[in-house]
Amino acid sequence: MSTAIGGVVVLDGSVVPDREEIGNKAHSLATMHRLGMPVPPAFVLTTSVGKRCAGGLPDDVWADVLAALAHLEAATGRRFGEELLVSVRSGAAQSMPGMMDTILNLGITDAVEATLAAASGDAAFARDTHRRFRESYARLVGQDAPADPHEQLRAAICTVFASWGSPRAVAYRNHHRMSHDGGTAVTVQAMVYGNLDDRSGTGVLFTRDPQSGDTTPMGEFLPRGQGEDVVSGEVDPLDLADLAQRLPEVHAALLDAGRALERHARDVQDIEFTVERGRLYLLQTRVAKRSARAALKLAVDFVGEGVLTPAEALARIRPDHVATVLRPVLDPEARATATVLARGEPACPGIGSGRAVADPDEAAFAGEDEDVVLVRHATSPEDVHGMIAARAVCTEVGGRTSHAAVVSRELGCPAVVGCGEGMLAAVEGRTVTVDGTAGEILDGIVPVRTPEPSEVPALARLVAWAKEHPDAVAADHPLVAL
Amino acid sequence: MSSDMEIDEFTALHGLVLKKAGQAGEVAEVLGATEAEVAPALDAAVAEKRAMSGRGKYMVTPAGRAWLDEQYPVLFADLRADPGADAAYAGFEEVNRELLALMTRWQTVNVGGEAVPNDHSDAEYDAAVLDQLAKLDSDADPVLEVLAGLVPRLGVHRRRLAEALARASAGETDYVSGVRVASYHTVWFELHEDLLRLLGRTREP
Fold it and tell me: Is the ipTM of this complex over 0.85?
């Protein structure tokens, strides 16, 4: 089967075009297809095509789009304008702000809404889907969505191509000295639904634990969930064991896919998936973000499994990973006997000790000569100069998204926020130790100790490799100095 | 160059508390005035012992602070009685919650439930946050327009936010949440304090 229709590429696994031609996300989809993964069918208008579409979509390109759309209809067994809805998204080789956001559920009309309501048994969901489509289309395309799904698609594709030239995208490329010639691709993909029945849902899989680096996969699954439900965290999802119990075949297929993708990428994957009526679809995979501790353990484990060479593993360790795992911690014995004066929400990690001062001016002044901790009911812009001088910051009210928390993280100043009314009275004037990692204010100066490299799992091995492979790490990398 | 603003002693002192210790130029920036317009009013405040100065910087005295606190309810009695101002402030609070959550996403990423500092190695993640910041800025604009209609001086914050957004999304990423520059968060924080003082409200937890 031919997969390239003019400049429109159907992602069916037969080819994986260059990243520059189809953009990052479509490249990832093409790779998943190539590996035989279940991915909702999609096609891409390449960056080369985009260069011909500055003044609107030429008719020959539109003819190619219609041919590619026929592939999507054949693959899904659904007709566009009846049941098949698609997403339309931009994709450049390098992500940048100012590009058009994704439009979901394109193709929905009053008739499709009725079909969707019947299929899901959820008229409110169908109505909401339609409303959200109309709103996002109007916002992104700059006009009301036409009733004809084909017109919706044509205008949306044009808008994505045009967004390459948006003032914000242009300013970003200028600042980063990037070429303006690259252009964006457009990916059109069939929508799948996680809310159709009890054998449907949506979730994420990490092929290993990104926090600890343990080899056990972890993930979340939200039965009857759709799209951003898991990410938004508004509903408590189930874990993988629950998924295994409810949908054992899906669970097995998901873990198989995760292992294959991890092996292919030679790194831990963060995979978004949807199950539609018992059928698994992978929506996206990317390299998982990880804690510093996990970064160390994973690098060593991958060498042990023969996936990476020691030199490759070293290249994955950044200086801040090492700094983070060697960050001073409270001496466990001293901590065990210390008195907790107040507890709150940890807003910025680290330990800071000093005299607790409630006046930001005093903190700014005294902070030049002695260690002070700024303690406030809440913080205002006037407090910032006191925060700059302080070893730690505590507030009575506000959470980890308060102004105080934002400023303390910016300063790298350990912070505990939202300690509750009465914290000031309990703390002011005393010498205290603030543990911004645990969210505690302790009485007195609690000694800290810096972990020995030998105590940190995996670190000793990496240090030894750094000595054996001096070319693999920068001379000023902390692994070299240890 | 003149901004054609009348900077009286009250306005200059109000600008000074938004900036804390500051040079006349910094106070002028937060008020949308010029240094030449602000400096005489600050010097007058120093003569009244409502401010102190040294090494080119000004600071409000406790007496000046008390005097300011007496002025707000008098000068802004009409504003405080205006239901339109209440509604606009409620709109501001709504965007404020989103903004602070967005700033937190810019600074930290979620790793298996743990907040880990964003090392800004993921261009896609950062671009998405910057796009959301642009969207939030356009959501905030009508609210700020209403407020600037009630107190014209507040219009300066819209211009300052637009400037911070432009610099941040072009790639000067310190202009998202940096403390030492007029970043989006710095300006927003000052705007928030400005509103709280005019409206006589306290910070929501």
Answer: yes
